[in-house]
Amino acid sequence: MGLIADTGKYILLMKRVFVAPDRGRMFFRQFPKELEKLGLQSLPIVAIISVFIGFIMTMQTKLNTSNPLLPVYTTGLVTRDTLLLEFSSTILCLILAGKVGSNIASEIGTMRITEQIDALEIMGVNSANYLILPKVVAFVVMMPFLVIFSMALGIFGGYFVGVLTTIMTTGDYLVGIKFAFVPYYVFYSLIKSMIFAFLISSVAAFYGYYSYGGALDVGKSSTNAVVNGSILILFFNILITKIMLN
Amino acid sequence: MIEVKNIEKSFESNHVLKNVSAVFETGKTNMIIGGSGSGKTVLMKSIIGLHRIDGGRIEYDGRNLPDMKMSEIRMLRREVGMLFQGSALFDSLTVLENVIYPLEMFSPSTKEEMLERARFCLKHVNLEEKAFGLAPSEISGGMQKRVAIARAIALQPKYLFCDEPNSGLDPKTSLVIDQLIHEVTHEFEITTIINSHDMNSVMEIGENIIFIEKGEKAWQGNKDDIFHVDNEALNNFVFASELFKKVKRTNQ
Questions:
Q1: Which of A33, A189, A238, B96 lies 20 to 30 Å from B174 when distance is taken between CA atoms?
Q2: To the nearest whole angstrom, how far is the Cα of B145 from the nearest Cα of chain A?
Q3: Average pLDDT for residues B89-114, to the nearest whole number?
Q4: In a domain, A10, yes or no
């Protein structure tokens, strides 16, 4: 019952969010700030995680596929396709659901409990549209860039296994990452990540917007935003994969 | 003028407002007073439209709020200024930007005109220019309240609502805030409604006082009448302290 009621509330909130802004110039003033806050400020964490995961994934794959019957390109190919298909979209979005989701939920939640949202409403501003729309649009716009950045750095991280260890050569790795490349995987990954970006930002905004009480309750909203955002990502991952890769 | 007629409001089985009728006059500081849990906050939020009432009328110069569509309510709210208990200034904006904000949203003025208006409002509430560029967190509670008043009057509202304007302030600063509210009400001919349980404010600026007791209007009058009332609940509320008891005896 609670799930149905929450879904209804979420849909009604989104109806208020996706309307033309009261003042276009206020939206375009807020939009670059959100691009910077939600997108550019996520670059360091995306970079660190992608390089390390690329490195570890290549090492693990090589160690677990050290069979003379398997071709030399196996490690590079597995690393590349795993990064392209899952890590740089799904896993990265799960990580960003924590960083960006909690940021959005706590920011809007704090505005709710300190009556800043009421102040906007009393002024006659559509607070949902003013606060949420720039965040959702900015995050959806930034996500493909973050994903491409992650893919590139992940593959780059894998290359370092050849440079820093003796378990494989960089030549073998480069052969693998070029072998049987399917450009559609990148397209699939980008589309998927944009849907996830929408889910992360809108679900977090929903929990923040309907926060009540005090600091403890904002913390709970933030947690709910991350947990439910992550569950939705996993659920939609199956759905999108079924639609786009079948 | 705002007139409420026979308004009713319940939260599930809790009947909070019972057939409340009152007139809030233009150019006067109208005060809603009452003890904790008496229903005064619900009354104010109902008048603003933050709570949907179960029955009755709330007329803003003849326009009935419960009959309005959301878009009409939004238009009406552009005529409303509100001073919140915690000031509710936007953290991400400076003092000056907070006051410019409603102008940017709804005023057709040029940027220079908006800036001029914002500066005028801030100077009107006696805020020093050096505070204009500061964040709300960098100024005192009293200054935050003054910025909130400046923001509330920036669009020259016809109606001003103040929710516990003195909460958390020292007596001297409270007096300054009371006087500011009183001044702007008279100067700009605003219908001001103040929700308060601060008896100093009531005695200072209460021109039209409505006492709410258990969700009903128990008394209406002004700060001079209050000394001669034979209403036990009101007397217990207003003259709870020894000081006010002495003041009452002196006035009688």
A1: B96
A2: 13
A3: 92
A4: no
Note whether A124 contacts B104, CB cutoff 8 Å. Answer: no
For chain A, the domain total comes to: 1
Taking all residues of chain B, what is their mean pLDDT, rounded to a whole number?
89
What are the tens digits of pLDDT across the range B39-91?
888 999 899 988 889 999 999 999 999 999 888 888 898 899 999 888 899 99
Q: What is the DSSP string of A197-239?
A: HHHHHHHHHHHHHT--SSHHHHHHHHHHHHHHHHHHHHHHHHH
Q: To the nearest whole angstrom, how far is the Cα of A12 from the nearest Cα of chain B?
A: 14
Instruction: Say which of A118, A125, A126 has its CB closest to residue B84.
Output: A118
Q: By CA distance, what is A23's nearest residue in B? A: B105
pLDDT band at B244 (very low <50, low <70, confident <90, very high): low
A108, part of any domain: yes
Residue A153 in domain = yes
Residue of B nearest to A122 (CA): B77
Is A202 a member of any domain? yes
**Could you give phi then psi for residue B209, rounded to 5 degrees?**
-115, 135
Mutate to test the interface with B, among A122, A130, A131 (most CBs of B within 10 A): A122
Reduced to 3 states (helix: H, G, I; strand: E, B; else coil), residue B216 is: strand
The three-class DSSP label of residue A122 is: helix
Any CB–CB contact under 8 A between A12 and chain B?
A: no
